[in-house]
Design goal:
- The structure is a homodimer.
- Chain A contains 17 helices and 13 strands.
- Chain A is globular and about 70 Å long.
- In chain A, α2 runs parallel beside α4 and α2 crosses α8.
- Helices cover about 45% and strands about 15% of the residues of chain A.
- Chain A has three domains: about 45 residues, Transferase, Pyrimidine Nucleoside Phosphorylase, Chain A, domain 3; about 210 residues, Pyrimidine Nucleoside Phosphorylase, Chain A, domain 2 (3-Layer(aba) Sandwich); about 80 residues, Pyrimidine nucleoside phosphorylase-like, C-terminal domain (Aldehyde Oxidoreductase, domain 3), CATH 3.90.1170.30.
- With about 425 residues, chain A is α/β, with parallel strands linked by helices.
- At the A-B interface, α1 and α3 of A face α1 and α3 of B.
Chain lengths: ~425, ~425
């Protein structure tokens, strides 16, 4: 079997790596026989010289197999999960998971914390008092079987090689490599082991991928490698030039999610969530997925599943709805009359992070109460002086700074982007 | 100033690095703000995408300036040093340094230990009982002024960034990069700060560079970057398909060096050493360097300087000459009649290392007494049964194994290589 220096030499010289090479690499990372500095040399060589589909698949499977792969009873199928590349106001997981479960598709979802503009799914869930995201894999499996949905945080048992590689990529400038991104995302999803994976690949100012081209390439790679690994998979490419929905900030986004589950949410968030669940449904052989979703939102069945999940995980929705507002809530009004496209996604993301709603470093704690709440959806005509939204902040100076950042990014008088740009199957 | 991730990104994307970038990198390595894994990512990116002359110069200077640069009194000029890329039987430094000093060129020489087939210059010197290679930089400067020559081991004060980068290169498969090799060699030589640097770049089976082309590229790069840094420099490309001289092994090579200094050594070692000192002399404006060297060897002046250096550094030549032979000395005889080209350099190197004369790991101790001693120089006609050489070993089994390795590599009936293949100025 090749030793690690042979593997590094081969990738350095653009020679093909075998499945065995990549298993040797990933298992060596997990067991410590491949050092951090060797892993970094690999990441840089793979970044520069690329990994082809076979290598990307092998690396993904090897990273998956560096830890536990969850095994599900056949009777629980179809099991599905969604991965989003992340954006500002992206609270889809909170709605999607119970909505899919309500139409018969179980969703075992393992999420990360946000290290970026705004909080991640776990941060949002934790704004619900008592909500426990630290279940064991056994509890995770049990609840997925019983309730149809369970949402927890990453565990050291799944894809440990990914945790180490992921921690090195930022500091070694090897983040923006499609094969490495794909292996990182998919190794964790494959360890979770659903039958169906749907991707929401965002592009725009507030997304990881700024251009449609890059997002398309990532989406195609994710779908291709997922299928090669034996999963049913597809992707939506969606726009992230403006925040999705009306809120950005942890508790504000949970509140918006509750509104959507009560069928009283903004159209864009609702439509995107329904579209993602309909993708899952199509893979599961359910043709009328969108119709079933609309019915479930209308009847309250999706909301019932959400409540059941929150209760099973120790959360208290009544306590959440009794949460106070942030200490300062400050209005933002239109300074002109016209067709308001809304704020830029990146500007809102930066403002919310500065308010304390996101992280600069992994050890930062997020403030659940702060954020941006829009009164008028993007793409509507407004009058000078009209209330556009509110900043929720811990104190006045922070609120003023956020208002300045967000207001300066307002765009006017141009057609809005479509939210769903392309479907990749 | 660019942060390290910007520097990694630039080299990753083949964008030029500035002098400031490379100083930031090297100083960060020395002060620990650039981690091992970031350094490794840089090494791999630099290996794959290369470093141009300006970048190589800047990296070399930055690595030099990560520690102390020795300052010499003008009155001590010309100061010269030699660097060899290393080979089997390469004992030139031991002769060259006192020989150059004997014709008026001071040689302050800082050497490494061998991690390869046979011992390094320090290992050879340490086979002289009492010889101390661990002087302070202040003692090093004083002795160079007083005796004209001083030979010591590497110190943490000179080019500390090189020590760290060098330690990472083997494990990250980034050794065989001409710019990285050049920066490593030259940063230490520039910290030592002589006026003149002469390179002996070896090519062949027993050399770091196997081909003439690779050796030529390294030699041209070393000379070019040395000149760009303000030094007088030239290189000889020399053959390393057979061991140089008649011995390979630490004490055996010191004995051969004493023979050469007494003008009783083999022609090839003597000629190569004289040629290297003549290069130094030409840079110092001395036209008849070769003639002066031959006179110095004949008159015993070079030997006098060697004795003076050994005594100044605590060594005892009489004790060295009274050393016992290795426990087993076994003859090797010709198994045919013909024109004997001698053993292969790599085979001798491997055999001597296996005998205990070289290292497999940095912490290995070398046995000074073992090695290979040739009776007949390479390229002479021999009779069947004639004594060709002797293996010096710690026990009979080791001797037999070494004899087998060396004998199997004998070459016959073809013209010998010239030793000096090319001069690069």
């Amino acid at each position: 079997m090749a030793v690690i220096t042979d593997i590094l030499r081969a990738k350095r010289d653009s020679k093909p790596l075998s499945r065995e090479d990549l298993y040797r690499f990933a298992s060596g990372i997990a067991d410590g026989t491949v050092t951090d500095y060797q892993a970094s040399a690999f990441l840089m060589a793979a970044y520069i010289n690329g990994l082809d589909s076979d290598e990307t698949l092998a690396l993904t499977m090897a990273m998956r197999d560096s830890g536990t792969v969850v095994q599900w009873d056949k009777s629980l199928s179809p099991l599905a999960d969604k991965h989003s590349t992340g954006g500002v106001g992206d609270k889809m997981s909170l709605i999607l998971a119970p909505l899919a479960a309500s139409i018969g598709i179980r969703v075992p979802m393992i999420s990360g914390r946000g290290l970026g503009h705004t909080g991640g799914t776990l941060d949002k869930l934790e704004s619900i008092p008592g909500f426990n995201v630290n279940l064991t894999l056994e509890q995770f499996k049990e609840q997925t079987a019983d309730v149809g949905v369970c949402m927890i945080g990453q565990t050291d048992r799944l894809a440990p090689a990914d945790r180490i590689l992921y921690s090195l990529r930022d500091a070694t400038s090897t983040v923006t490599s499609i094969p490495l991104i794909c292996a990182s995302i998919l190794s964790k999803k494959l360890a979770e082991n659903p039958d169906i994976i749907v991707f929401d690949v965002k592009c725009g100012t507030g997304a990881f991928m700024n251009t449609r081209e890059d997002a398309g390439e990532l989406a195609r790679t994710l779908v291709r490698i997922s299928k090669m690994s034996g999963k049913k998979a597809s992707a939506l490419i969606t726009s992230m030039n403006h925040p999705t929905g009306l809120t950005a900030g942890n508790a504000l986004e949970v509140q918006e999610s509750l509104n959507i589950l009560r069928n009283k949410g903004p159209a864009d968030s609702t439509d995107l969530t329904v579209a993602l669940v309909a993708e899952m449904a199509a893979h599961a052989g359910i043709d009328n997925g969108e119709e079933l979703c609309r019915e479930s939102l209308l009847s309250g069945r999706a909301m019932d599943v959400f409540v059941e999940m929150v209760e099973a995980q120790g959360g208290d929705i009544a306590a959440f709805e009794a949460l106070p507002l942030a200490p300062v809530v400050m209005d933002v009004r239109a300074s002109r009359t016209g067709y308001w496209r809304g704020p830029d996604a990146l500007a809102v993301g930066n403002a919310v992070r500065k308010l304390g709603g996101g992280r600069y470093r992994v050890e930062d704690r997020v403030d659940p109460l702060v954020g941006w709440e829009q009164e008028v959806p993007c793409g509507f005509p407004v009058e000078n002086g009209q209330l556009l939204g509110r900043v929720h902040a811990a104190h006045r100076d922070a609120a003023k700074e956020a208002i300045n950042t967000i207001s300066c990014s307002f765009r006017w008088d141009a057609p809005s982007d479509a939210l769903i740009l392309e479907e990749i199957r």
